[in-house]
Amino acid sequence: MNHYVSTVLDERFSEWKSGTITPQTNKSAIDLIISDYISTHKDKTEAKLDPKFKAWAIVQLRLMFFVARCLINAKMETHLSTRRKIAGVGG
């Protein structure tokens, strides 16, 4: 998972640096993270993301993925439970 997210961060950062992506065109979590990074590092012309920042971003994105999955699972379980009650199945 870390390797995949790292690769995606590198790809998106390259796209941001080339100007094909702007804050107005994309609002994904990765784009928001990179947009903030670029706005706080305007004085630097880095070709790659800072390794410390990248490690922090990977942890934050993995946490977001985990929380989103848990919320979706909980919502689905609630929905299925309600449907069972309506159908009179499963107590």
- What's the structural domain tally? 1
Radius of gyration: 19 Å
Strand content: under 5%
Helix content: over 70%
Distance between the termini: 39 Å
Description:
By secondary structure, the chain is mainly alpha-helical. The protein has one domain. The protein contains three helices and no strands. The chain has helices at residues 2-18, 29-40, 51-87. Helix 1 packs across helix 2 (29-40) and helix 1 crosses helix 3 (51-87). The longest helix is centred in the last third of the chain and has 37 residues, at 51-87. The chain is elongated. The model has no long low-confidence stretch (mean pLDDT 82).
Short account of what is shown:
With 91 residues, the protein is mainly alpha-helical. Helix content is 73%, strand content 0%. It contains 3 helices and no strands.
Helix/strand layout:
Elements (H helix, E strand, L loop, with lengths): L1 H17 L10 H12 L10 H37 L4
What tags apply to this protein structure?
91 residues; mainly alpha; 3 helices
